[in-house]
Structures are given as C-alpha cells and as structure tokens.
C-alpha cells in the first residue's frame, strides 16, 4: 500500500522495542483504518517490550482503549500511559474469561502471543465470541501451524490453519444441504469474511441478513430452466419501464 501511515509510524518508531513482519503492516491498515480516531477497544496478546502498544496508540489515536496481555510478569512493569497490561496465559480459559469481563466487547483482537496451536485455539474459542458485532480478529505468525515444535505440521489435524479451513465451511453454512452434519453456528451468524495472508488470518465480523438472491435484467433467449424469480423480475422490469413512460 503506497499510502500507509502505519508503515510510516513503524519506520520512524523510536520508543519501546517491537517486532513486526513488514507485510503485516499493509494487512493491518487494510482492516484497521476504519477504527482510527474512534473510541474502540484493541486487545493485543503478546506485549513483548511494549512497542506495539505504543504503535497502536499512535495509529488509532487517543480515544482507543488498548489492552495488552502477556504471560511474562515483567510486562506488568511496562508503564505505558493509557494502556492496560494484564498478566496471564492465553491458554488459560479462566484468565481469558476474566479478560472478556474486563474488556467488554473487543473491536480489534490481535493474537501475537506464543503461537502454539493450543494457545491459538483456546484464545479463538474464548475471545472470538467477545469480538464486537463489527469487530475484527487477527491471528498472526501462523507459519507456526506448519511447525511441529508448536504443535503444528503440514495438514496436521490439530493445527490452527486446518481449523481455520473448517471455518470457511461455517462461513457458508447457510447453504448447507447436509443439516445433520453441517449446520449454522455462532460463527456462521456473526462472521462476515475470512482473509488469509502469508502467516495471517483476519476474520471480520458483521451481522449479515439471511442471504437473498435477486436478479436484474431480462433473459437473452428462451430459457425453460429459469426459476420463477426471473419471471417475477421480468414483470418487475416491465413495471419499472411503465413507470418511466409515465414520468
Ligand atoms: C512475538 S512477541 C510479541 C510481539 C509484540 N506484539 C510486538 O509486536 O512487538 C510474543 C509475546 O507473547 C508472549 N507469550 C508467550 N506465550 C504466551 C501465553 N501463553 N500467553 C500470553 N502471552 C504469551 C511472550 O511473553 C512475548 O512477549
């Protein structure tokens, strides 16, 4: 992205230490720019030395509530004005539930913690439901899904990336014809889109109406297979043309 303020902020950052893969900056900006200057809540799992909390503050602005989560108790000593730092593990369900209570609806969740499969999964299970109606869930460094020492491996049945692939089905579950084995769940109802990038998954939430197919235009040739909606559409178009003629 040629005009990415986050990239510029990262390039000139002189504050606390932070690490980001450079291509993440475009992905972040693509999904997070709508939150800039807004009152929103960002939770980042993985505080490290606190630099990314500073970056988010600069990028999102003074109205953002920024919560950092880390297992390392030394992070508690990072006194970053306007940022809350909670110490606990992202694989501890009780801790994550406490976090949910404290944070309220989360607009932006960035999972940049331990990157182990159990950590990615438990955090997703506990925190995705806490994402605001129009919020966004970002899991990064997903290359660990292919690494055995993180509990992953290529097509490993319990890798987070394999789980994410099954969520693509859930995104489409309203079209299921296999109700016994494949049906709408909370994810189908709340997730609007999933975006896969190198090492990153972004899931945007948005309440979606029940999918409805409409048709516009008139058939180009006699087609006995056209569904009734097309004949309705023809009638509707004729009605519109009539109205035009009356104007
Ligand atoms: C890659 S660093 C985070 C980098 C930081 N977000 C940045 O952009 O500079 C990963 C952090 O996750 C923390 N971490 C590791 N396992 C964790 C766990 N189970 N729960 C919470 N944090 C964890 C580590 O202590 C470390 O600070």
Explain this structure to me?
- By secondary structure, the chain is an alpha/beta fold.
- It folds into two domains: 5-205, Vaccinia Virus protein VP39 (Rossmann fold); 213-247, no CATH class.
- The chain contains eight helices and seven strands, in the order ααβαββαβαβααββα.
- It has helices at 5-12, 22-32, 51-60, 93-103, 117-127, 160-171, 186-190, 228-246, and strands at 41-45, 65-70, 83-87, 106-111, 131-140, 191-197, 200-205.
- The chain has a seven-stranded mixed sheet with strand order 3-2-1-4-5-7-6, sandwiched between helices.
- Helix 5 links the parallel strand 4 (106-111) and strand 5 (131-140).
- Helix 4 packs parallel to helix 5.
- The longest helix has 19 residues, at 228-246.
- The N and C termini lie far apart (47 Å).
- 29% of the residues are buried.
- The structure holds S-adenosylmethionine (SAM).
- Residues 18-20, 44-48, 51-52, 69-72, 89-91, 112-114, 119 line the site of S-adenosylmethionine.
